[in-house]
Amino acid sequence: MDFLTKLAEGFIGIFKAGGESFMGFVTGIIPLIICLMTFVTALIKIAGEEKVDKFMQKITSNLVLRYTVFPVIAVFVLANPMCYTFIRFVKEKYKPAVYDAMVSFVHPITGLFPHANGGELFVYLGIAEGFRQLNISQASLAVRYFIAGIIVILIRGIVTQKLTEIMANKQNVDLDALDEVK
Question: Is Membrane given among the entry's keywords (predicted)?
Fold first, then answer.
């Protein structure tokens, strides 16, 4: 009988742990995201949606800026996971590639700007500890991560854009027409 009691306690314990994790989200990240969304929306309203859209369209119309400057601004200003809301400023045909660039940059930015992705900080700090033990500058590691990250997101953005175009052509999807549907 003791076995069944422990089994039942263990079973319900899984759901208690899930509930505690859920409450952590409810009291932690969800209010943060709502506050950030409200702030960014207010900022866009104050600056003027047309001006912000025009500025963002100018940046995202350039291949290099679309996969370097745009993701850096989004991740730096809004952090992970809120940065993905910036994708609303991108033409439909570029959204998969911009998302790929952004999601690939949330780790490399962490060394210089820990606020951008607190969840990845432990990875960076673990590697940085090795540098510290070797008496190598952790700042140089952070800068190298950042620069390598920008190079990687540019490459990934371009490759993903080309792959999206290839897949769309194979399925006879007109990517330019997607923006007209909006």
Answer: yes
Please enumerate in sequence order all residues whose Cβ is within 8 A of that of 114, keeping only pairs 6 or more positions apart, or say none.
121, 124
CA triplet 147, 70, 112: central angle to 5 degrees? Answer: 40
Structure-token pair, residue 55: 């500025």
How large is the greatest C-alpha to C-alpha distance in the chain, in angstroms?
Answer: 70
Q: Which residues contact 76 (CB under 8 A, 6 or more apart)?
A: 109, 113, 116
Q: What is the pTM of this model?
A: 0.74
Q: Rounded CA gap, 176 and 153, in Å?
A: 23
Alpha-carbon distance of 21 to 122, in angstroms, equals 19
pLDDT in tens, the chain (182 residues): 788 788 888 888 888 888 887 787 677 767 776 787 788 788 888 988 889 888 988 999 999 999 999 999 999 888 888 889 889 889 999 999 999 999 999 999 988 888 888 778 778 888 888 888 999 888 899 999 999 999 999 999 999 999 999 999 999 999 888 877 55
Helices (runs of H) and strands (runs of E) counted in the chain:
9, 0
Residue of 117, 121, 107 lying closest to 29 (CA atoms): 117
